[in-house]
Amino acid sequence: MSRHAKPSNELLGQDSSAKTVTPSRTGAQSIERAMGLVNLVARHHDQGISLQALVKLSGLDRTTAWRMLGSLQGTGLVERDESSGLYTLGTQATAWGAASLGQAAWVRQCQSAMKTLARLSGDNVFLVLRMGDYSHCLHLEQGQHAVPSFRQTVGETRLLGLGVASIAMLALLDDAAIQAHHARHAAQYALEGVAQAQLQRWVQSTRQRGHAYRSTAGIAAVGLHWHVGQTAMAALSIGASRSRLPLGRAAELSVLMRSHFPLLPLPL
Fold first, then answer.
1. DSSP 3-state helix, strand, coil percentages of the chain (rounded to 5)?
2. pLDDT for 183-208, tens place per residue?
3. What is the DSSP string of 68-119?
4. Which residues are bridge partners to 139 per DSSP?
5. 96, 203 in Cβ contact below 8 A?
6. Which residues lie across from 216 on neighbouring strands?
7. Measured in whole angstroms, how far is the alpha carbon of residue 255 from the centre of its chain?
8. Fewer CB near the terminus (10 Å): N or C of the chain?
9. What is the dihedral of CA 197, 200, 202, 204, to 10 degrees?
10. Which region holds residue 82: left if phi is over 0, alpha if psi is between -120 and 50, else beta?
């Protein structure tokens, strides 16, 4: 061998493919771990989550988690509150979420099933997304018995619990989280005439029935939630005049919704 020649991988006892595969896999693992942290932060965005909790839930060592979170802060995907030390989603994550709403990807995915439900029920089918303590109405498909005023709800953002779809999503939280949610927005709930005990009764009846149902001011609706990915939550609801949607029909419509929208969970 020439003194200027480099020894081959075979002479060194190394796999000739190692240098091309290992860096790529290492990079992929880093991305997976970082996005795992983002997902954990997203799940606990409302109250924030500590570094200690992230280390425990992710299985990463403290140094690795701290370093990755620093990088994620630099990209704007997460933020750290200086006083509490808790992590929440950052401005870039918010911007991505807003952009996805503008593209209405979920509307395209759900529209066919919503049209079918509107045709079969004859009523009005809503697609609603949870946004923290609020719900946002993304889309409406109207059936034969359209209610013109329902069009005004598309694009609205309302406090969780002030609509049947958002009650369906709120019922997934434990009682302590619901109490904390009501306390955070006590003034707004007071304006709506919704006491904590009333909100808890709506949640409890939703859990018992397997679907949310509300009837007020001549309008009634039934709602079901589903999980989107690891962090997001959405709901479908069907609304109509109270005369068309009594409590008994709500159970029939919940079965219809599940049969044409397989993402909806089966009743317990």
1. 50, 20, 30
2. 989 999 999 999 999 999 999 999 99
3. HHHHHHHHTSEEE-TTT--EEE-HHHHHHHHHHHHHTHHHHHHHHHHHHHHH
4. 127
5. no
6. 219
7. 23
8. C
9. -130
10. alpha
Show the tokens assigned to 120.
């079969």
Give 22-49 pLDDT, tens digit per residue: 555 667 788 888 988 988 988 888 788 9
- Predicted TM-score (pTM) of the model is 0.66
Edge to edge, what strands does the sheet with 212-216 contain? 157-159, 134-142, 124-131, 232-241, 219-228, 212-216
Q: Rounded distance, CA 125 to CA 142, Å?
A: 6
DSSP at 49: B
Taking a C-beta distance cutoff of 8 angstroms, is the pair 161, 198 a contact?
no
Q: List the structure tokens of 36.
A: 């795992």
Strands (E), the chain: 78-80, 87-89, 124-131, 134-142, 157-159, 212-216, 219-228, 232-241
Question: Which two three-digit tokens encode residue 92?
Answer: 């870039």
